[in-house]
Write a structure and sequence with these properties.
The structure is a single chain. With about 375 residues, the chain is α+β, with helices and mostly antiparallel strands. It has helices at about 110-115, 175-185, 185-195, 215-220, 225-240, 250-270, 275-285, 290-300, 305-315, 320-330, 365-375, and strands at about 5-10, 20-25, 30-35, 45-50, 55-70, 75-80, 85-95, 100-110, 130-135, 150-155, 160-165, 165-175, 200-205, 245, 305, 335-340, 345-350.
């Protein structure tokens, strides 16, 4: 079982960095930093360093971590206490001015500091280049996506898909006001479609109407406002992972989806970073050995599969973890991509048993990994 996630601060025998801050889950250390104070002052931030020594002495603080999440290059932390509970760590990479290479800067900021400083960079995501979008062949009068690479093709569900490395990472179900009223007449079928939509990482239902339109007796005709309100409440309750957007019009719905796809693409394309690795350690390590070992073993077992099939047999790993392993295997020439009837398939090549080489950094067996961790 996964242990409780804790925020622990200890004193150090060092005037410049008198404290060591550790976030750990059970016995596993997720993040360990040297800090200059117990908490950033009002409107301030604290510069941090990686903890590489064992000068820590007595413990001065121990609090349960409620939430640990990544937003771009920021690691957001929420603690289980009434005050001094929200903060984030900003991880930056800077290039040396006089020589090649990069160095890391880590800043610890609080909610009040963010409010006071009003940072110039307000968004965590950035433009990530040309988007690859697929529009379902049955979609009539589709939205437009200027500057994107657009193709028509069959989609398993939904009307618009964002692709990354030939894999669907986001799906949009588009509905006009009339479409939605027609769906109200068969809610079980709508729930099935939306349930399938939720199996993808970034799903959304986008309506080209306002919520208040569904409460207007003149516009509803065949339904009462009370029924429509209950239907929307049921949809929201049954599909908590689904983004439901009342865009108001076709133009605004199109614009929202374009910006949403850009944000998803930026978040997924964010280069491997300290924050990304921290979150993988926090969310992904649900077994007693490195998760990459089990993913590779399942790939060897499946031989040929779609990304959706891999997610179905490994539901407790994030899409990012699975893609990371597939990219590494493809780079090593162990798997390949092929297309058949509109589907993208991954296939093992160059001998199934030879895939073991990718796990060499962690040991070729769970026992070997456990042994390396204890050392």
């Amino acid at each position: 079982m996964r242990g409780e996630t804790l925020w622990i601060i200890k004193k150090r025998d060092d005037n410049r960095f008198p404290y060591a801050l550790t976030i750990q889950e059970g016995e596993d250390i997720i993040l360990s930093l040297l800090v200059q104070d117990l908490w950033p002052g009002a409107g301030q931030n604290i510069f941090c360093l990686r903890a590489e020594d064992e000068k820590s002495q007595e413990e001065v603080e121990r609090v349960r971590v409620v939430s640990l999440r990544r937003y771009g290059r920021k690691l957001s932390v929420v603690l289980d206490r009434p005050h001094r509970k929200r903060c984030y760590f900003l991880f930056l990479k800077k290039r040396y001015k006089t020589r090649p290479g990069e160095y890391e800067q880590i800043f610890w900021m609080t909610q009040s500091a963010i409010t006071r400083r009003r940072p110039k960079v307000l968004l965590s995501t950035r433009e990530s280049g040309q988007l690859e979008i697929r529009i379902d062949i049955n979609e009539r009068y589709p939205w437009r996506f200027p500057g994107s690479r657009v193709e028509r093709g069959s989609l398993p569900v939904g009307d618009y898909a964002l692709l990354l490395e030939n894999q669907i990472i986001s799906l949009i179900e588009r509905k006009t006001f009339r479409d939605m009223l027609a769906s109200f007449s068969n809610l079980p079928l709508l729930h099935q479609r939306l349930g399938e939509l939720e199996t993808y990482p970034y799903p959304a239902l986008v309506i080209e109407a306002n919520y208040q339109d569904f409460l207007s007796r003149e516009k509803l005709k065949y339904f009462t406002p009370e029924f429509a309100a209950k239907a929307w409440a049921e949809i929201s309750a049954f599909h908590p992972r689904l983004n439901i957007i009342f865009a108001g019009s076709r133009k605004l719905a199109n614009k929202w989806v374009l910006k949403f796809f850009a944000a998803v693409s930026s978040h997924e394309k964010e280069p491997p970073s300290t924050v990304h690795d921290i979150i993988l350690r926090y969310e992904g390590d649900r077994i007693s050995y490195d998760p990459e070992y089990e993913i590779v073993e399942k790939i060897k077992e499946l031989k040929t599969f779609t990304f959706k099939q891999l997610r179905e047999v490994l539901p407790y790993y994030s899409p990012g973890q699975l893609r990371k392993v597939l990219r590494r295997l493809r780079k090593k020439g162990k798997v390949k991509i092929s297309r058949s009837e509109g589907q993208v398939y991954w296939s093992v090549i160059d001998g199934i048993d030879k895939i073991d080489s990718i796990t060499s950094a962690y040991g070729s067996t769970p026992e070997a990994v456990d042994k390396s961790r204890r050392q």
